Amino acid sequence: MPLGHKTFGDRVAEMIFRRFIADYIAAQATSVVADWWFLWLNRLIHGSHVARVAQADVVLFMAEGTMNGQSFFRNHRLLMLPVLAAKRFAKPVLSLNQTLYTTDPEFRSIIRTAYSHFELVAVREPASLSFAREIGLPQALLFPDSAFRARSNGRPLRELVTGPVTAPLVCLTGSGDCPVKESAQHFQIVMEFARTNGVQVCGLLWRRKEIDTLRQIARAAGGQPLLFPAPGLAYEDVSALLAQSACLVGGRYHSAIQAAAVATPFVVLPSGSHKTQGLLKLLDYPLRERAFDDAAGIQTDLIDVLRRRDVYAAHLASRMDEVRRLRSRGIALVARLIAAVSSGKMLSDVLASAPEAEILRGKA
Predict the structure, then answer these.
(1) DSSP bridge pairs for 60
(2) For the segment 50-71, what is each residue's pLDDT rounded down to a tens digit?
(3) What is the pTM for the complete model shown?
(4) Which of 162, 244, 301, 313 pairs with 260 at a CA distance of 20 to 30 A?
């Protein structure tokens, strides 16, 4: 059941019931009447999905990087259905593959209360694990992102881009949580670097405004050769493109993971939360996050990864072995918990004795 787009119910909930929803999730509104209103609001927003959750044996809550600490839609609304499942319907909720993050001090207590109802709190990178411990969720554990499953299908580079590749390829992404104006800053920096260092740029961009902006920058630089992914590429094709590129530059979290999974070095920019810092820690990566306008820093990192690409690739390949071991343990733990639901066991007892949980919990 995807988060979807804002509905009429979302607007009603945000304008009229925002305070009530916050208080209910934070356990400050507790009564039979409050329970009824919260159920009604969930039905208003989520419709038939409420009945599906009520009939489920177990609920998997996978919010990825949706929580941003800035809006009702990506904070309070995000938590409504899993909280309803855990509190009203007494369903075991397993929270998986998520970054826990907020810039709102009040929402920290809401996160703590909401997630305390869930049987499993598994975050995808160490920054979120530290954040969970900090706000009072000691049961949280680390289960690396599902995007680490990415593999190249070995398709040749000439079939993956829109033109001839005549120099080492630098793939360029935007960022999920920044205006195009800010992305244009690092677009300009990378295009100038390409002009003076004999590399070619491929724009791994999906937003039309970003694509148009990069094209304008290329034209202003004298019509520099610019490539884009060929139309209709599958996920494994993009992995193949990254595997055959010199490096990746940008603020897309999953693009950085996809590059790491095929041992392609990356220069990382802000992604809208601490998930990027968490990824760098998970990979023990030797570079730090750069600001969009840090021309000197971005260029220094590009020079280093191009000069020592083999060293970076070997490091990433080594770290990927550990990441995949962690993911295997996480998968085994989730399978153990779902089997326990089927047999009627207490999930808290299973978690307390599962060897995988102990290992994943100790990765702060």
Answers:
(1) 94
(2) 999 999 999 999 988 777 767 7
(3) 0.91
(4) 162
Per-residue tokens: 121: 């709190």
Nearest Cα neighbor of 84 from 43, 138, 121, 135 is: 43
Q: What distance in Å separates the CA atoms of residue 276 and residue 279, rounded to the nearest whole number?
A: 5
Specify the pairing of strand 200-203 against strand 247-251: unpaired
CB atoms within 10 A of CB 280: 20
E-only strand ranges, 17-154: 59-61, 93-98, 120-123, 141-142
Contact assessment for residue 224 and residue 191, using Cβ atoms and an 8 Å cutoff:
yes
Could you tell me which residues come within 8 angstroms of residue 315 by beta carbon, excluding any fewer than 6 positions away?
A: 284, 285, 286
Q: Sheet of 200-203: strands edge to edge?
A: 226-227, 200-203, 169-175, 247-251, 266-268
Rg (CA), the chain: 22
For residue 15, the model assigns a pLDDT of 87
Q: Binning pLDDT at 50, 70 and 90, where does residue 82 land?
A: very high
What pLDDT, on a 0 to 100 scale, did the predictor assign at position 10? 82
Alpha-carbon span 101 to 118, nearest angstrom: 17
Query: Hunting for tokens 């060293």 — which residue is that?
Result: 311
3-state helix/strand/coil string of 165-209: CCCCEEEEEEECCCCHHHHHHHHHHHHHHHHHHCCEEEECCCCHH
268 pLDDT tier (thresholds 50, 70, 90): very high
d(CA 192, CA 221): 8
By CB atoms closer than 10 A (0-12, 13-18, 19+), residue 221 is middle
CA nearest neighbour of 122 among 92, 89, 100, 107: 100
CA dihedral over 5, 8, 13, 15, signed as positive or negative: positive
